[in-house]
Design brief:
Blueprint lengths: L2 E6 L14 E2 L2 E2 H10 L5 E5 L3 H9 L19 H16 L5 E4 L9 H13 L5 E7 L10 E3 L2 E3 L19 E11 H5 L8 E5 L11 H15 L1
Parallel strand pairs: 1-4, 1-5, 6-10
Antiparallel strand pairs: 2-3, 5-9, 6-9, 7-8
Length: 231
């Protein structure tokens, strides 16, 4: 299977200025993702960016930056899936080839591993009717069954609430949330405006490798997590 790895990294982060090249655990944030992507079984790895500094750092890390992302795909309102579709079609034009799938690897989820990437590929290749593989993490204590609506100041149980008040966590069926690390999607599914498609397989990742950085607090927590679990 021919799979294009796409690392999206625009330059206009507001929550953490310069986020994608800010130093985390001794190297620029984006380099964590570039390093594992280049060591994996992906057919090709490219960075999609509009920013000259990100381009320089990415190329120094060994990644290809074969085009500059258009301004309309680098705004706060640009959709991730449009960025991925643009990168796929642009690379197919430049390489004069057709890819079977893309893997979107967000640099803001820096602790994915080569094994995570290769396992996702193996899952897609071995599940003939799957459209995609998406990485997830167990929600643990924040289980949706414990959530409430608030209406006029009153707590209201949703339809999916726990079977009885303060139900033991161990009795609740495990649930997962996307952690932002890996989106592996077949070409036709992506071009139909979906990362997920009709049949999506799960790649479960542990809590300590599921950091997703949007704010300075997230950045500081990621640094703490790295030093505690990954250094």
């Amino acid at each position: 299977m021919k799979i294009l790895g796409i690392i999206p990294a625009r330059g206009g982060s507001k929550g953490v200025p310069g986020k994608n090249i800010k130093m985390l655990a001794g190297k620029p944030l984006i380099k964590h993702t570039i390093d594992v992507a280049l060591a994996s079984n992906l057919s090709k790895v490219i960075v999609s960016t509009d920013d000259d500094d990100i381009t320089r750092v990415a190329r120094e890390a060994g990644a290809e930056v074969p085009f500059s992302r258009p301004a309309d795909l680098a705004s706060d309102t640009a959709k991730s899936i449009d960025v991925a579709k643009h990168a796929l079609l642009e690379m197919e034009r430049l390489d004069n080839t057709t890819y079977d799938a893309i893997m979107l690897l967000q640099p803001t989820a820096p602790f994915k591993t080569v094994e995570d990437i290769n396992t996702a590929i193996s899952i897609l290749e071995s599940t003939s009717d799957a459209d995609s593989v998406i990485s997830v993490v167990d929600v643990l204590a924040n289980h949706p069954a414990r959530m409430k609506y608030v209406k006029n100041g009153q707590l209201i149980d949703p339809p999916f609430c726990e079977a009885y008040e303060n139900q033991n966590r161990q009795e609740l069926e495990k649930m997962y949330i996307r952690n932002g690390a890996i989106y592996l999607t077949k070409r036709d599914t992506l071009l139909n405006n979906s990362y997920k498609g009709k049949k999506c397989m799960a790649l479960e990742m542990p809590q300590h490798r599921s950091a997703n950085i949007d704010t300075m607090d997230d950045f500081e927590f990621a640094e703490w997590t790295y030093n505690k679990h990954l250094a």
